[in-house]
Amino acid sequence: EPEVTQTPSHQVTQMGQEVILRCVPISNHLYFYWYRQILGQKVEFLVSFYNNEISEKSEIFDDQFSVERPDGSNFTLKIRSTKLEDSAMYFCASSPSGPNSPLHFGNGTRLTVT
Amino acid sequence: KQEVTQIPAALSVPEGENLVLNCSFTDSAIYNLQWFRQDPGKGLTSLLLIQSSQREQTSGRLNASLDKSSGRSTLYIAASQPGDSATYLCAVRDYGGSQGNLIFGKGTKLSVKP
Description:
By secondary structure, chain A is an all-beta fold. Chain A has no helices and eleven strands. In chain A, 0% of the residues lie in helices and 50% in strands. By secondary structure, chain B is mostly beta strands. Chain B has strands spanning 4-7, 10-14, 19-25, 30-38, 44-51, 56-59, 62-67, 72-77, 86-94, 102-104, 108-113. In chain B, the strands form two sheets. In chain B, strands 2, 4, 5, 9, 10 and 11 form a six-stranded mixed sheet that branches. In chain B, 39% of the residues are buried. Classes of the chains: A mainly beta, B mainly beta. Chains A and B meet through strand 4, strand 5, strand 9 and strand 10 of A and strand 4, strand 5, strand 9 and strand 10 of B.
């Protein structure tokens, strides 16, 4: 069964550094998402992406965050200057069509900012 | 603003028991509701998706129901097994934003004892 793939599984970085989290969504899916889960808290929506542009973003997704689909397969989340509070599990998800279709999640990247 | 609540936060049962996990949401204007399983430190595995027009969905030993008007969903697990031990997350896709985004509950941590 096709799956969403995320790399790396764990990334450690120092405060103020830039990080790029990578995702390969399921190949025929058209909608892409990033969510995050701070340890012990709910999974939270960050951003959705469709037709090569952001379709929606949450309050969390400020100017420090950006997303890109640089080619036909990858979908990346960049954090320009990491803060301690960015430490979380970041999940990429994709869905084949609009809001009536299920989201398929990757295994996540655990980001630790020291 | 949509809020999703899951009760109980944790549940421990002996192997073989049937059990019910509860999910409630505050705004009935939803596209659908999705149940996920999360193993420690891992991603989200989609279990069942119930569209807003449906009352229930079944997959193997799992049955999920939806009562949109009262803002409730249940996940029924029959004949529980130790391998069912995980955190179960409920998420609603509501009408907020351009295409609706998943809003998660905090989850129910299930432990099935052999």
